[in-house]
Structures are given as C-alpha cells and as structure tokens.
C-alpha cells in the first residue's frame, strides 16, 4: 500500500536522519577514526582554537575525491597545524548524519539528499552546507542484451543505492518524467526499483538479479567492466551538465564555536580542488591511494580511469541544483516540501576563495541570515 509523504516524513524525523529509512538500522557510524600516515604536524605548529582534533567524515567514493586527496596529500593536517585531523569513513548518508548529530564528527563530505533531510529533520538547527565538492559521476548502466534503449527500462529491475538517497530520488524523478508509475517506498510499479548497497550491486548485476543500476562512480564503471553499457549519464539531464553530487557540511555549533578550524578545513578543500584540476592524473592516483589506505583495496585502472573522468571537482555547491533535487524528492512522494532557507553558510568559503583570487560562489537565496 502506498505510504503518504507525511508518514514518511514522520518516520524520517523520528530517526532524526534522512530519507534512506530502510538502511538506517543497518548502518553504524562508519569505520573507526583513522589518521593518514602522510599527514605530519609541522614543527612549531599551534592548535587552532585550542582544539586537540577536528573529526572529518567522508565516503570511500570517488565522488568524495576532494576529501580523499586532501587527506592523502596532508592538506587537512597542514591547515589545521597542531590540531589533529582525524577521519571516519562512511558507507551511507544516514549514518554520517547520525554521526554529525551525535558530535561523532564535526565536518563531513556528503550527498545532497542526506544533507537536505538532515537539515529538515532537525528543523534547520543542526547542519549547514559550507561548500561544494563535486558534480556529476552518476550513470544509468544496463545489461545491453536486455535493455537497448531508454524505453526498454520499463518492466526491468534497476538498482539504486538506498531508498531516498540522491541517486534513488533522481531515478524516481526520471521514471515519472517518462510517464511511468512506481510506488516510491516499495519500488514496485512500471519499473522495479531495487535498493541495493553499492558494494554488492556489481555481483547482483553479474548474477542477473538486476538488469541495471542508477549509481555513482566507481560503481557505474564497475558495472561497465562487468559488461554493462552506459545508457544515460545524469549530467545530460541538467543545465550546463552540472549538478551537485557532494557537499561539505558542518555542525552549526562547531561552526559557531570554531570558525578558524572550519576555515582551515575549507582552505584544505580549496587547495585540494585546485591541485586536482591542475594535476588530474596525479590526483586520481592520490585518491586511489587513499581508497586503498582506507579500505585495503585500490581500484584497477579499467574502473578508476573512466570513473574519474566523469566527475568535476568544484568549490561551487551548485545551490540551485540542490533546490531542484529537493523538488524531485517532493514529487516522488518521499518528502514534504522543505524550507531550505538557511541551509547554506558560504561566508567562510567565499573568504577563502577571495584570498586565493578565485571567484566567489552563490547560495541561490538559501543562505543563513
């Protein structure tokens, strides 16, 4: 039976997290905090705001390449001085929002849907988006023997990472634009939407239990390496082929009490993005090295190379596209219309960008007053 938006919202509020309601119970706070061996505290460095550490969260995804590179190259530690940069690695947005809510992390890299829902679930009191990180890197990859055109997706089993996550919302919106019907919560309808963790999606594809997937990198390229075909790049659905896939968030209390520490992390992010865009091959290798350090496994070249090419690293949070993604969640029946006014505070980011001689970025009217 279809579940009304208000019911879904109440469940989300009760969990104090985001839309991926079914996945929350299975998610912890991510891996144990870990420190990179490459990050050395400079001699004579001082602590920022008297802090012993700043706890930074990110995913082991290439779409979080800014954080991967900044950790691997020691940019976070360099900017934080004698305040230790510590890290937690997450597999899903809800667990990272839960960690933020419980003060287990201070700053994190995360997708737009968890950020939207973490903000609305706390009535706008717990997080702020303080910067952009990445655009793109999301594709619909299918079995070419079963699906030869977009219209062939109807009637097939297509995976997304989680109920209500960023890719799930995008796929549900695309389905609706085709004129097809799907019950958002169950995933049943003209297309079967199968919520499958990215780590097992390639095996599900190989076994034939799914016919394709709408997923971020590097999962998309893993499916291609397994014989899949890219049927649609989500970037082609957006103006200028840009849409937010990763943002930087912070606890509002931490932002208020430790602005110098937040500014230091943003400096590291801007430095990382500048280096990534100037040195794409070296940056790709650095991100992969950090993935290996975090997970024990690096990506092979046939997956790493095409995945990296499809992601744009940017300091711009692409705020107008976040608002559009929220509208898509509302249309899908997964969210009551949210009030996103105040979700952004780009003051410190724009301060850093000005100091670097780079263009400032816009909050699309959704900035904190």
TrEMBL record:
Record InterPro entries: ABC_SsuA_sub-bd, NrtA/CpmA_ABC-bd_dom
Annotated GO MF terms: ATPase-coupled transmembrane transporter activity
Main location: membrane
PROSITE patterns (UniProt xref): PROKAR_LIPOPROTEIN
Signal peptide positions (record): 1-25
Localisation per UniProt entry: Cell inner membrane; Periplasm
Cellular-component GO terms for this entry: periplasmic space; plasma membrane
Record's keyword terms, sorted: Cell inner membrane, Cell membrane, Membrane, Signal, Transport
Keyword check for Transport: yes
Similarity comment: Belongs to the bacterial solute-binding protein SsuA/TauA family.
Protein name: Sulfate ABC transporter substrate-binding protein
């Amino acid at each position: 039976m279809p579940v009304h938006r208000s019911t879904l919202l109440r469940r989300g509020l009760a969990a104090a997290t985001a839309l991926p309601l079914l996945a929350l119970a299975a998610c912890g706070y991510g891996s144990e905090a870990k420190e990179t061996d490459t990050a050395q505290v400079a001699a004579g460095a001082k602590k920022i705001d008297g802090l012993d550490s700043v706890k930074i969260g990110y995913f082991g995804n290439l779409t979080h390449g800014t954080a991967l590179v900044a950790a691997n190259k020691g940019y976070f530690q360099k900017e934080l001085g004698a305040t230790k940069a510590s890290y937690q690695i997450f597999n899903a947005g809800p667990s990272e929002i839960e960690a933020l809510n419980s003060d287990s992390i201070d700053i994190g890299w995360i997708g737009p849907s968890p950020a939207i829902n973490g903000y609305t679930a706390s009535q706008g009191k717990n997080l702020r988006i303080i910067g952009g990180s990445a655009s793109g890197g999301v594709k619909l990859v299918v079995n070419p023997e079963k699906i030869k055109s977009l219209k062939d997706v109807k009637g097939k089993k297509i995976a997304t990472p989680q109920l209500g996550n960023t890719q799930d919302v995008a796929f549900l919106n695309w389905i609706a634009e085709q004129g097809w019907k799907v019950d958002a919560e169950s995933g049943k309808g003209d297309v079967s939407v199968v919520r499958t963790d990215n780590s097992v999606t390639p095996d599900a594809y190989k076994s034939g239990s799914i016919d394709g997937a709408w997923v971020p990198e590097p999962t998309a390229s893993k499916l291609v390496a397994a014989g899949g075909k890219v049927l649609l790049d989500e970037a082609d659905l957006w103006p200028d082929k840009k849409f937010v896939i990763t943002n930087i968030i912070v606890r509002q209390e931490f932002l208020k009490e430790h602005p110098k520490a937040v500014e230091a992390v943003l400096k590291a992010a801007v430095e990382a993005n500048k280096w990534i865009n100037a040195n794409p091959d070296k940056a790709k290798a650095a991100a992969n090295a950090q993935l290996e350090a975090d997970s024990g496994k690096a990506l092979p070249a046939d997956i790493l190379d095409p995945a990296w090419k499809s992601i744009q690293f940017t300091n711009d949070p692409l705020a107008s596209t976040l608002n559009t993604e929220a509208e898509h969640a509302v249309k899908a029946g997964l969210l009551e219309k949210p009030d996103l006014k105040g979700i952004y505070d780009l003051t410190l980011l724009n301060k850093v960008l000005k100091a670097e001689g780079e263009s400032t970025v816009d909050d699309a009217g959704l900035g904190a007053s």
